[in-house]
Every structure is written in structure tokens, then in C-alpha cells.
Design a protein that fits this description.
Blueprint lengths: L9 H15 L8 E3 L5 E3 L11 E3 L4 E8 L2 E6 L2 E6 L14 H6 L8 H9 L3 H10 L6 H8 L4 H10 L5
Antiparallel strand pairs: 1-4, 2-3, 4-5, 5-6
């Protein structure tokens, strides 16, 4: 007598495939490789700076992420598993900000007063600009004059407006 073979129905196959995918899929963070960007980093046995470091990790070294927990990453490095703080790795929030005021005007930008904002909205008249120049001799108006003197070809300007779907 033959024994019946196990042959699940189509819904059973979907269940089996789904379970297999869950079991074989890596946990969140597994397989992710991060490069250490900060000097003098350590691998800790627990997510705590008070614990004795297992080893040091130099800037430029790569580690494999095993798990993420708050501000700490559990990583594998040179056969050792341990924890490293989030600050050891690059993040978009820690990108350096350029001092735009210093680039444009050669110094830091001070606080803007409400009357200055109102004038900017209305535009400087020659009289207002002359008074502003007198009140702020430290400002470099040569760059402003350069920008004001810049001319744009009218045909190119209209083509730009049309291509961008802008109204004059």
C-alpha cells in the first residue's frame, strides 16, 4: 500500500513560502556596512560608554551592522561583536553648514530688523539705498552693484520663462 504524499493546496504553498521568506530574511540592519568617520572610536561590550572597550576602531574602518538600538549600533568588527555610538558614523544632520553670510559679504550676518525686511519686500529706492550705505559703511556694495549691472538677453529670458511655464 502506498503512503499519501504531502501536497499542500495553493494557499498552503503561499503560507510555506511566506514563512521561509521571514526565516531567511536578514534582521533589520544586517548586512549594512558603515564606515567609521570619527577618530578615536571604541567597540564596547554593551551600549554604554562606562563599559571597558573591547578594542579601538580607527576612522576609515568599515563595520557590519547587526542591530540598531537608539543611539547605538551593534556591529561586527575584526571577528568581534560589540556596540558603537551613532556619532562614529556619518549622518546628514551632522554635515557642516557653510557660513553663507561670510561667503557673500565677507563677514557674519547680523540680526535683521523688521524695517529692513519691509524695505527688502518693497525694494530699495536710490534714496533708501544711499541712507543704508551711510548707516552701514562696513557693507560691501560693490558686489550688489555688480549684480545690478548684470544684463540678460531678452530673447533668452523669454525663452526661459516659456520653457519653465513661468509668467512674466
Amino acid at each position: 500500500m502506498k503512503r499519501p504524499r504531502f501536497c499542500p493546496r495553493p494557499a498552503g504553498w503561499l503560507l510555506i513560502l511566506g514563512l521561509a521568506a521571514l526565516l531567511l530574511a536578514p534582521a533589520p540592519g544586517w548586512g549594512e556596512v558603515l564606515k567609521v568617520t570619527q577618530a578615536n572610536q571604541s567597540l564596547y561590550p554593551s551600549a554604554d560608554f562606562a563599559s571597558t572597550p573591547l578594542t579601538s576602531v580607527s576612522a576609515g574602518e568599515e563595520v557590519n551592522v547587526v542591530e540598531k538600538a537608539g543611539d547605538w549600533y551593534q556591529v561586527e568588527y575584526q571577528g568581534k561583536k560589540g556596540w558603537m555610538p551613532r556619532q562614529a558614523f556619518p549622518t546628514p544632520q551632522t554635515a557642516p553648514k557653510l557660513p553663507l553670510g561670510g561667503i557673500l559679504f565677507g563677514g557674519l550676518v547680523g540680526e535683521t530688523k523688521s524695517d529692513e525686511v519691509a524695505l527688502a519686500g518693497k525694494g530699495f529706492s536710490p534714496e533708501v539705498e544711499a541712507a543704508y550705505r551711510q548707516k552701514h559703511p562696513e557693507m560691501k556694495f560693490a558686489q550688489v552693484d555688480q549684480v545690478e549691472a548684470f544684463k540678460v538677453d531678452e530673447v533668452q529670458f523669454n525663452a526661459f520663462l516659456k520653457e519653465g511655464g513661468l509668467k512674466p
